[in-house]
Design brief:
The complex is a heterodimer of chains A (about 290) and B (about 650). Chain A has about 290 residues and is α+β, with helices and mostly antiparallel strands. Chain A contains seven helices and eleven strands. Classes of the chains: A alpha+beta (about 290), B mainly alpha (about 650). The structure holds protoporphyrin IX containing FE and copper (II) ion (2 copies).
Chain lengths: ~290, ~650
């Protein structure tokens, strides 16, 4: 029995250490690479600690009670079958969750509003328009005039305003290391601010079920320092084909495709996609969103 | 001609891989053997007289119990298929379409056709007995509710064999669930299966609300009522507000699909967000609808087996009712990722607020055990398994409610781990505790404790092995509803562990079945009617109870009335004079109505309007027949009550 116990403990320790250190990189949510992800990571940590402070003692107390008050012969613990009320105790445990939840609520409300704003203030942001299709991601760069499919390149240390919509079922745009997701809704454009502070390639994924090819809807977010970013834009402009309206209709048909680059796209393409899905009913909405963002 | 038939058949029947054919064959064989057995043993008449036409709440409860355990099996097999597919990267066990159908039917079946009926089983089996009543308020309606649930579930399950299963998720968001993206009958099966059983659920909610408010034994004021009945009351209040929303939502979705309307598509001026708001206005309360009765069960179990009065009864009642009301103000937490920041902040706080009364309940349970004498019988074992799972599940629920952090957990495996933790650790464990607790009362024999302990430990350990790794997978970015993943993601080891856990839980279920079968064969009768030394009225009558439950309606003086009567010895029968007992007559109409609903649903699912309409006409005619019926009740003569009582009384030691 003893050796067995020791082996279990050692292997548990090994497992724990390998989880914390070696494979730590895989915990994308816990390895944020930008200010948005960092805010969210901090909240995760704060909430976990606040809750653990309550949960762990309660669990220990629970284990103690079950052990102490078992019904077995010779148990000397006190037994008070009629004791069912204690105002002081009850006040205490109404107070505990109220305090914890109250504290958490303060952080929550604060950061909910923080996240709606541009992350690094004072830096000129760029806008990228994102459309989820069946089953691929289209990225339009209105300022640069280029477009990509299934991967997106962004400049580092620059706030990126992703404008999200869909020309397929509702989806969700998620890049765990840069920050939490937002839905792509038909006929509407939602804003998502993200920013990468380091060069690198980040995993992005579709995160709201949208049918048969949903699982394959992964994309890469490649962050490059500004000069390299401009080089890349030039290179796409110089070498890639152009995306026509017809080419878009072809692209938007259900199916999977490889990564694509386009040197240009019809300038009204994003508006066209939004209106096609009913955006005319929401014109005002969109104008407000755009104004708010500027 | 032959060509046409062939073409029709290939569209009508689901075709595909060997897995499906094997399942089809087993369904056909099982059905055939049931028909054969019934014919061979000449049991058709018995089945009709004793079960299909019954309005006795105890028998209806048993039918709910059996159906829900069958559905647990079906949903469980779905779960194991999914976990098998995810055990290794790039598995080719299920393809994407098949996987999508399976998670959709798994989710729908587990919530609507497993958890709900298991809960209704316990409502039916226990509430009237706990209240000291002879029946529910509307016995005929109760039977109608059951058959609506049953035929709704049958219709939904039929999609597996004919037409094709729905595959747009258990809440079927448009536009994915609209005709453009989900043509064919699958989605209609979803709409009609849920719609029909949903109407039954609403009726059950009304029925038990009235039963609890009107049928309590004399002297049982609301503040002396057992906590399980209180939890049923709060659950019913939520049902009454939530289920009409579901009916309307699914109705509108069907109008979109069938008549080409645009309630939920923007291109015609509707909006999918309407649907998402509506479905969660039902969907969120729905999870509290199923968890509240579990809270009630735990309260009964903990005070019985800790041999102590429940701690803080008034707090418990207040918490139950406030949870059922608060649950209507949280629905947006399911789509923080599309709302505005103000809306998010508001719903984040309301969601966290639910944790306050819930947390208080946990403290009260702990203090009920504190200074008690805890007997580790199987029902209590499930209770003790519940506390840690629920504490952790509740905590991760609060973490999910932190809106900005939710953007990182939404729709990934962190969420899957959380909701299974509350749905399995809270709801399912709770209903199991209730099933084990009241089993001897309902069936008159004990379940084998030894096998029951095995079942418990397998479920409990299996649970942690399955779902703890999934929290980590969520933090690694694995989206829910992915049917596969690559080696490069590093998701394999944890997925593999999770699959092992799922099979451990499957083994737990096998032990439960074994336990039941074993206990039926080696029957250990409960002759006392009160095997756990219980506290509430249901333990004051013989097991199984006679049709009329109470020969003499008890007079209640206190909370835990039966316990105190036992303490002071006043429970021993004094000489009583029996009176004739008024009872409702059995009726075939509920079954027939349910059947016609099935026909209607089937017709509309395939858009065969004439079949659909004849089903609806059948429903109308059968209910009108009921309206014309005058002879719907009878009296059990006093002598017969006396004879029955002395017969069971004689059997009691
Ligand atoms: C017996 C152990 C169980 C296992 C191993 C299991 C496993 C799973 C798996 C693998 C998924 C699919 C995840 C995905 O791909 O998105 C899932 C989804 C789900 N499960 Fe379970 N499950 C179990 C029990 C339950 C129970 C008891 C309930 C409810 C009372 C439940 C409710 C759900 C729901 C609502 C979904 C979501 C379906 C959807 O995404 O549309 N499960 N489960
Ligand atoms: Cu909810
Ligand atoms: Cu939850």
């Amino acid at each position: 029995m003893q050796p067995l116990k020791r082996i279990t403990i050692v292997s548990l320790l090994v497992a724990l250490i390998s989880v914390i250190s070696g494979c730590g990189q895989q915990y994308t949510v816990l390895n944020p690479k930008g200010p948005v992800g960092e805010i969210q990571f901090n909240l995760i940590v704060i909430s976990a600690i606040l809750l653990a402070v309550v949960i762990i003692p309660v669990l220990i107390f629970f284990a103690y009670i079950v052990f102490r008050y078992r019904d077995k012969p010779g148990n000397k613990a006190s037994y008070m079958p009629e004791w069912d009320d204690n105002k002081v105790l009850e006040t205490v445990w109404w107070a505990i969750p109220i305090i914890v939840i109250g504290a958490l609520a303060v952080f929550t409300v604060r950061d909910t509003f923080v996240l709606a704003e541009q992350p690094s203030k004072g830096v000129k942001p760029i806008t990228i328009q994102v459309t989820s299709l069946d089953w691929k991601w289209l990225f339009l760069y209105p300022e640069q005039g280029i477009a990509t499919v299934n991967y997106v390149v962004i400049p580092t240390v620059t706030p990126v305003r992703f404008e999200l919509t869909t020309d397929a079922p509702i989806n969700s745009f998620w890049v765990p290391q840069l920050g939490g997701q937002k839905y792509t809704l038909p006929g509407k454009a939602l804003n998502l601010w993200l920013e990468a502070k380091e060069e690198g390639s980040y995993f992005g994924t579709a995160n709201n079920f949208s049918g048969k090819g949903f699982t394959e809807m992964k994309f890469q977010v490649i962050a490059k320092p500004n000069p390299k970013f401009s080089d890349w834009v030039e290179q796409v402009k110089g070498s890639a084909p152009e995306l026509t309206r017809k080419g878009y209709e072809e692209l938007s048909k259900p199916g999977l495709v490889e990564k694509q680059d386009y040197a240009s796209f019809p300038p009204d393409l994003f508006d066209y996609i939004i209106d096609k899905n009913g955006g005319q009913y929401y014109k005002e909405n969109r104008k407000n969103e755009v104004e708010k963002a500027q | 001609m032959l060509e046409n038939v062939k073409k029709f058949a290939s569209e009508f029947f689901v075709t595909g891989n060997t897995l499906i054919y094997a399942a089809d064959i087993s369904i056909v064989l099982t059905s055939l053997s049931i028909v054969f057995a019934l014919t061979y043993f000449k049991k058709w008449g018995w089945l009709w007289r004793e079960w299909l036409t019954t309005v006795d709440h105890k028998k209806i409860g048993i039918m709910y119990l059996i159906s829900s355990l069958l559905m647990l099996f079906r949903g469980g097999v779905d779960a194991l298929l999914m976990r098998t597919q995810l055990a290794f990267p790039n598995m080719e066990f299920l393809n994407s379409e098949h996987y999508n159908q399976i998670f959709t039917t798994h989710g729908t079946i587990m919530i609507l056709f497993m958890a709900m009926p298991l809960m209704f089983a316990l409502f039916n089996l226990v509430v009237p007995l706990q209240l000291g009543a002879r029946d529910v308020a509307y016995p005929f309606l109760n039977a109608v509710s059951f058959w609506l649930f049953f035929f709704g579930a049958m219709l939904f399950n039929l999609s597996f064999v004919v037409g094709g299963s729905p595959d747009a998720g258990w809440l079927s968001y448009p536009p994915l669930s609209e005709n453009t993206f989900s043509p064919g009958p699958g989605q209609n099966f979803y709409i009609w299966g849920i719609q029909i059983s949903g109407i039954g659920s609403l009726a059950t909610g009304i029925n038990f609300l009235v039963t609890i408010l009107k049928m309590r034994a004399p002297g049982m004021s609301l503040m002396k009522m057992p906590l399980f009945s209180w939890s049923v009351l709060s659950s019913c209040i939520a049902i009454i507000f939530a289920f009409p929303v579901l009916t309307v939502t699914l109705g509108l979705l069907f109008v979109d699909r069938f008549f080409g309307a645009h309630f939920f598509t923007l291109d015609g001026g509707g909006n999918p967000m309407f649907y998402i708001n509506l479905i969660w206005m039902w969907g969120h309360p729905e999870v509290y609808i199923v968890v509240l009765p579990a809270f009630g069960i735990f309260s009964e179990v903990v005070s019985t087996f800790a041999r102590k009065k429940i701690f803080g009864y008034k707090s418990m009642v207040f918490a139950l009712v406030s949870i059922s009301l608060l649950s209507f103000f949280t629905w947006v937490h399911h789509f923080f990722t599309m709302a505005s920041n103000t809306v998010d902040a508001f719903f984040a706080v309301t969601t966290m607020a639910v944790a306050i009364p819930t947390g208080v309940k946990v403290f009260n349970w702990l203090f009920t055990m504190f200074r008690g004498r805890i007997q580790m019988k199987t029902p209590m074992l499930w209770m003790t398994g519940f506390i840690p799972t629920f504490l952790v599940g509740g905590a991760t629920g609060v973490m999910l409610a932190v809106a900005p952090a939710n953007f990182q957990y939404h729709n990934n495996y962190f969420l899957i781990a959380h909701f299974h933790q509350v749905l399995i650790g809270g709801v399912t464990f709770g209903f199991f505790a209730g099933m084990y607790y009241w089993w001897p009362k309902v069936f008159g024999f004990m379940l084998n404790e030894y096998l029951g302990k095995w079942a418990f430990w397998l479920w409990n350990i299996g649970f942690y092995v399955t779902f703890m790794p999934q929290y980590a997978l969520g933090l690694m970015g694995m989206p829910r509803r992915s049917y596969t993943y690559g080696w490069d993601m590093g998701w394999w080891p944890l997925n593999f562990v999770s699959t092992i856990g799922a099979f451990l839980m499957g083994a737990g279920f096998v032990f439960q079945v074994w336990q039941i079968v074993y206990s039926i064969i080696h029957r250990q009768r409960d002759l006392t009617g009160d095997p756990w030394d219980g506290r509430t009225l249901e333990w004051s009558i013989p097991s199984p109870p006679p049709v009329y439950n109470f020969a003499v309606i008890p007079q209640v003086e206190k909370q835990d009335d039966w316990w105190y009567k036992k303490q002071n010895g006043s429970h021993r029968n004094k000489a009583v004079k029996y009176k004739p007992i008024h009872m409702p007559k059995d009726s075939g109409i509920p079954f027939i109505t349910g059947f016609f609903w099935f026909v209607a649903g089937f017709g509309f699912t395939f858009e065969w309007v004439w079949i659909g309409l004849s089903g609806l006409i059948g429903v109308a005619v059968s209910l009108f027949t009921r309206y014309l019926q005058k002879d719907t009740d009878y009296y059990i003569p006093a002598e017969q009550v006396e004879a029955t009582e002395s017969a069971i009384g004689g059997a009691r030691s």
